[in-house]
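Minutes, methods subgroup
Present: GH (chair), OT, SY

1. OT presented the first of two proteins processed in the latest run. Sequence and C-alpha cells recorded below as shown on screen.
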Amino acid sequence: MIPLNPLGRFLRPGLLFALSVFLTGCNSAILNPKGQIGHDEKTLLITATVLMLLVVVPVIIMTLTFAWKYRATNTKARYEPKWSHSTAIEVVVWSIPCMIVLVLAVLTWRSSHALDPYRPLDSDKKPVVIEAISLDWKWLFIYPEEKIATVNEITFPVDTPLNFKITSDSVMNAFFIPHLGSMIYSMTAMETKLHLIANETGEFPGMSSHYSGAGFSKMHFTAHSVSEEQYQQWLAKVRGDAATLDKTAFNALVAEKNHDWHPVTYYGTTEAGLFDWVIARHMGDNQHYGMKHDHKAMGHDAAAGESHAGHDMPMTAEGHDAAGHAADVHADDTHAHAAGAADEHADHTADEHAAAGHAGHAGSGE
C-alpha cells in the first residue's frame, strides 16, 4: 500500500496541471456578463454560493479533522463510549444553518421578483421590441415597429431595453443569450416574454439551450450590441433587401428543416400581425387556450344560471308572467292546492302550501 504522504505529493502537481488545462481559454458568459440582468444574476449566484459554503466548508473540514483525530491508530485521542449529547453542539449545528436558510429565503424571494423575465426594465430610452420565433432549426426575429425581419441575427442599440416576445412554430425550445441574462422557453400556441439590456457593445452568442431535434446543435445566432448610429445604419441595410416576409415566405422558411446552420437572412418588409398569426394557427378552433365551449350548452347553462340567480337581476317578460302567476297562487291558496296537489298533497294544509309557495317565489315576487 502506498503511504498517504508520498501519494499526496505525487497527485498534487498532476491535479493542478489538469485543472489548469481545463480552465485554459475558459470564458464563462454567465460569470462575464455584459448586461444589467446578467450582472444581477451573477451577484445572486455568488452570494448564494458563499452563504451555502459557510456551512459546507466547516462541515468538510470537521469531517476530515474528526476522522484523522479519532482514527484507530491515535491512542492519545479521548475515548468516551457513553457520550451522547452536547447542548452547545446542538445549538451550533442547528442555529447556523437555520439562519443561512432564512437569509437565502429572503434573498431568493426579493431577487425572484426583481429578476422576473416578464418585468419591464426601467429606462429613459424607448425599448426595442423583437418577436422571436423558434423554427426547425433556426431563429426568426421580427421587428414589428421597424417592419423588418432577420434569421439567426439580431442587432440592437446599447443601453436600450429589449422587449422580447417569444413563441415557437414547432416543438418547445429555449431562448438564451448567456452574456445578457435569463433564459426562457418558446412554446407553440403560447407567448412568453423576456426583458434584457446590454451595457456594452459587442457580439454576444445566442443559442437554443433545449434539445429540439436533429439540427439542434446548429440552432445558434449572434446578438450585436451597437451604437445608435450603427443601429440606424443596420436598419437601412435590412430595409434595402427586396425580400418580403409574409405567410407564404414564412411557410417556405418553415419547410427548410436545416440540419446545418442556416445563413443570416434579411427581409426588408414584413406582413403585419405575423407573430400573432403564428400563435393562432396552432390553436385551431380552440381560441381559449385549451377550453372548448359548446355555445348551445353555454346558452342553456346561462339561462339556467339567470333563472337560479334571478334574485339580483332585472326580470324579463317571462319573469313578470312568473311573478304574476306566483301572485295568483298566493291569492287563491285553496284553488292552487286543489288543482296542483290532488291526492299527493291531500294532507297539506292551505297555510303550509302558501308558505312553501311564498318561499319558492320570493325572488320574483319580491
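2. SY then presented the second protein from the same run.
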Amino acid sequence: MDDVTGETCQWRGWREATEAALYGPDGFYLKPEGPAGHFRTSVHVSPLFAAAVARLLLSAAEKAGLEEVAFVDVGAGRGELVTGVLAVLPSGFPVRAYAVERAARPVGLDPRIEWTAELPAGVSGLLFANEWLDNVPVDVAEVDPDGVARYVLVRPDGTEHLGSPVGGADADWLARWWPLTERGRRAEIGRPRDEAWSAAVGTLEAGLAVAADYAHVRDARPPFGTLTGFREGREVPPVPDGSCDITSHVALDACALPGADLMPQRDALARLGVTGGRPPLSLASSDPAAYVRALASAGEAAELRARGGLGDFGWLLQRVGGPAG
C-alpha cells in the first residue's frame, strides 16, 4: 500500500499505525493504569463473569478428562479475569494459570499465575480471550469515487487519506466476508484476527477456546465500519498517537474454524447460570442483608446480559480434541 513519509507527513495503514499506538514504546496498553483505567469490560462489571468462566473451565476439564487443566487468559489486562477465576475454583483444583499480555507483570499478582507475552503451546483446558481480538490491529478499506476499495492511510493526528487499491489476500477476505461496492463504504479487514485466533486455538491440545468480543456477522456488517477510540471512559476519535485505545468490532464469523459455535453473550452466560433473576421479596423480610446482596447481584447479571450492551457481545466457542465445553 502507499506509504508517504516525511518530516510533517507520516502516512501509514491503520494496522501499522494501531500497532505502534497500542503496543509501541509509549503505547496505550503499556501505560501503568492499564485498560481498566479507561473502560470497563465484563470482567470489571461483576465477579459473576469470572465465576461463569470458572464453571466453563470446570466443565471443559471434566468433559476432556483432564487431570491437570490450563486456564489461559489471553489479553489479560492486569490479570483481573484470571485472578477472579482462581478465587472461585474449588480448593485444590489442579489448574495451571497463564496470563498472556504484552505489558509488564503487575506488582502483587498471585504467584500462581504465569505472566507471559506469548501463548503457551501444547496445553489442555480453557483458553479465554475477552476483548482481545478487537485490539488485534487491522487495516481499513474505503471505496473511492470510482468504486475501487482502497487502503485508508492515517497520520498520527488522525488525518486520513486513501492509498493504493486493496489487493491479494486482503481483497480475497473482503470479497468473502465484507464485500464493498458503494462509494464511501468502509470495512475493517479482519484477516489478521482470523490468523490470530487460528494460532491461539492451535496452542490447545484439548479443551475449549472462547473469544468474547464486540462482534458482527456477514449479513449485518456496519456500512461504515466501527473503528473508534476510548479514553477515560469516553468514546473519542481514533487518533493513533498512543493517547487512546483504538478498537473495532470483530467479524467473529470469519474467525470461526470448522465446528465452532457462535452466540450472544446473554445466551452463553445464561447457560452458565448467570440469569439476572430478582430475589423473592420474602427474603427482604427474613434476611434484609442477603436480599440487598442478591438484588445487587441481579443488577450486575442484568448488565452483563443487557440487550444493546454487553449482552450483545459475541461468544465464539471452539472445541479442540474432543467434546469439551
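Chair's summary of item 2: The mean pLDDT is 88.
Next meeting: continue with the remaining queue.
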